Amino acid sequence: MSVSVLVGNPRPGSRTLAAATLVAQRITGAEPDHVIDLAELGPALLGGDDPAVAGARATIQSSSLVVVGSPTFKATYSGLLKLFLDQFPGNTALAGVVALPFMLGGNPAHALAPETALRPLLSELGAVCALPGLYLLDTAYTTDPALDAYAQRWSEVVKRLTGQ
User: Fold this and answer.
1) Residue 128: CB partners within 8 Å, gap ≥ 6?
2) What is the pLDDT of residues 35-61, one digit of tens each?
3) Which end of the chain has less Cβ packing within 10 Å, N or C?
């Protein structure tokens, strides 16, 4: 199983990146194979033919599981994440990739954002979105018991979905 973390926080090395990596670790019991921090790609995302961006797209498309993480901005995902995902063609670009929509935020009122905003985008790209989205507060993601409960509930499902 190839596991990737894709994070669309505009700040490099963000809490969103740390949290999404932790989610991948807890779900799979191992470090992710690839971590893509879109903030590091910066302006290259605006050009259509940058090799680093093309490499990031290829990594995501060849992954078995992708934890797609974003901070919550105005109750939805970041524009940086959307900019990257808009570069995938059609509705089959992520066919066969199991995607876990994950969002980090400062207010529990946005807890449905992974389900109502990020999941439809990933589904539109053809990803297998069989897992419910996960939302954690940015002040408590390392200690929130919801993360362990989520991992305990869905780890076996991830193994089955990815053929492990």
Assistant:
1) 96, 97, 98, 99, 161
2) 999 999 999 999 778 999 999 999 999
3) C
